[in-house]
Write a structure and sequence with these properties.
The complex is a heterodimer of chains A (125) and B (130).
Chain A (H helix, E strand, L loop, with lengths): L5 H6 L9 H26 L5 H9 L1 H29 L3 H31 L1
Helix pairs in contact in A: 2-4, 3-5, 4-5
Chain B lengths: L18 H32 L1 H12 L1 H28 L6 H30 L2
Helix pairs in contact in B: 1-2, 1-3, 3-4
Classes of the chains: A mainly alpha (125), B mainly alpha (130).
Bound molecules: protoporphyrin IX containing FE (HEM).
Chain lengths: 125, 130
């Protein structure tokens, strides 16, 4: 015997009305990050002593530019969801938690936008 | 504001200590560390977009010993979080949840992250000779 209405159970959205969406996107982005991060780490290391011409030629390659954008998308989404959970666990004052959560949302979004802008500027410049 | 004094999850104090707990909190610490490190990634891309002078300065800072130390730390954090992330995904698939298996996979993650970091930096120094 459950206290939840049949409709609530069928929707399966839980107390936050968000269901498993947060959890699922965190997994989805982590799977994408696996190959993307390894690819980037190796590329970044191979550019360790590169000058501007070499590095921008690398990023102008369409495959590199596309993978870089994919990495940025997965990374900042994963990071935003992850930091959100950390804040929800440790920051308990109502106002402070609210401010911290918004700061993480806007901060990660801004970082992602700046990164995308830089990649496109190099790729098309 | 009576809600403030209620016990809050995660209430760690009710559990007997297990060293695997350290692996769990390390996943969180490396996650936050990688998040801070991502600022460095954005800065590097912006430096590339700004132009040759600024990019040369950025590359110089990254290859200084402070830069290398930061990148070494970040490499290990990445490999740890990545390996333990795979461990998490296996758990999500219902695999490896038995206590013995979870301990062994934890040891594998620690050893694997250190080994991968050494191989990665070893390969860089061997291929580049600097
Ligand atoms: C630079 C890249 C990454 C950053 C900045 C990052 C950041 C984070 C953060 C902040 C958390 C929250 C930690 C917590 O709640 O305790 C997290 C969780 C997680 N990360 Fe990452 N992560 C990255 C890469 C990866 C990769 C490559 C994987 C691959 C498998 C991964 C898998 C996971 C998983 C499965 C969780 C959830 C753990 C849980 O449920 O407690 N992450 N990440």
């Amino acid at each position: 015997m459950s206290l939840r209405s049949p409709l609530a159970r069928a929707r399966g959205l839980g107390a936050a009305h968000n269901g498993t969406h947060h959890w699922w996107i965190q997994r989805l982005t982590s799977i994408a990050l696996l190959p993307l991060l390894l690819w980037f780490a190796i590329s970044f290391a191979s550019l360790a002593a590169a000058d501007h011409a070499t590095a921008s030629a690398w990023l102008r390659g369409p495959i590199n530019a596309i993978l870089m954008l994919a990495l940025i998308a997965a990374l900042f989404q994963h990071m935003q969801l992850g930091l959100q959970v950390v804040i929800e666990d440790y920051v308990h004052g109502h106002a402070l938690k609210f401010v911290a959560l918004i700061a993480v949302k806007y901060g990660t979004a801004l970082l992602a936008i700046a990164a995308v802008f830089a990649v496109l500027k190099v790729a098309f410049g | 504001m009576g809600t403030r004094s209620r016990p809050l999850s995660p209430h760690l104090q009710v559990y007997r200590f297990e060293w695997t707990m350290l692996l769990s909190i390390t996943h969180r610490i490396t996650g936050v560390g990688l998040a801070v490190g991502s600022i460095l990634l954005v800065w590097w891309l912006i430096a590339l977009a700004i132009g040759p002078g600024y990019f040369a300065m950025a590359q110089g800072m990254l290859s200084s010993w402070v830069g290398r130390l930061l990148l070494l730390g970040w490499t290990w954090a990445m490999f740890y979080h990545l390996c333990n992330g795979i461990r998490h995904l296996c758990w999500d698939a219902g695999w490896g949840l038995e206590i013995g298996t979870a301990r062994n996979s934890g040891l594998a993650v620690v050893a694997g992250s250190i080994l991968l970091t050494l191989i990665f930096w070893g390969a860089i120094y061997m291929l580049r000779g600097a």
